[in-house]
Amino acid sequence: MNSLPSIYEYGGEPVTTSRAVAEQFDKRHDNIVRDIESIITKLNSAPNFGAASVLNFEGANEPNFQPVNREFAARNFFLTEYTDEQGKPRKQYILTRDGFTLLTMGFTGAKAMQFKVAYINAFNRMEELIKSFNSSDRYRVQPRRITTHKRRFL
């Protein structure tokens, strides 16, 4: 495991990549991609009730369930490409904090726990940095479109 999480700004939001997660957690990238695609499939086919839904505690004496839908996957996992060492295009995902959290919930062990906490702290620091830049017109962060076909992403 590497010591520092890789968190970036994308569209005014802190994100990481599937490759960074694989590297940081000492996992094969193809296995991380497989796990992300499994999560996306489950989210897209989740029923709109019960345990597959999101708990909402706001404004209620009792928790109620809000449906999980395709929008969650679309908001938190972005498919993109990078070019590998052999010049071949390969897929990777950009993950928001929520996407990262959902993916890594199943990672176990003391080192995994330490690294999840380090990632959460890094997401929080990046979010504060983005907010501080956005609070000033001089440093306003503009959403960027990332193109990865000809160059290496992140």
Describe what this molecule looks like in 3D.
The chain is an alpha+beta fold and 154 residues long. The chain has five helices and six strands. Strands 1-2-6-5 form a four-stranded antiparallel β-sheet. The chain has a two-stranded antiparallel sheet with strand order 3-4. Strand 5 and strand 6 (89-96) form a beta hairpin. Helix 1 packs across helix 2. It is globular.
Descriptive terms for the model:
5 helices, globular, two-stranded antiparallel sheet, alpha+beta, 42% helix, 154 residues
Structural class computed from helices and strand pairing: alpha+beta
Mean pLDDT: 78
**Which radius of gyration do the C-alpha atoms yield?**
17 Å
State the separation between the terminal residues, measured CA to CA.
18 Å
Helix content: 40-55%
Strand order of the largest sheet: 1-2-6-5
The biggest sheet, with number of strands, parallel, antiparallel or mixed sense and barrel status, is: 4 strands, antiparallel
Q: In terms of per-residue confidence, which ranges show pLDDT below 50 for 5 or more consecutive residues?
A: 143-154
Spell out the blueprint of helices and strands:
Elements: E1 8-10, E2 13-17, H1 18-24, H2 29-45, E3 54-56, E4 64-66, H3 70-76, E5 77-83, E6 89-96, H4 97-104, H5 110-134
Antiparallel strand pairs: 1-2, 2-6, 3-4, 5-6
How is this structure best summarized?
By secondary structure, the chain is of the alpha+beta class.
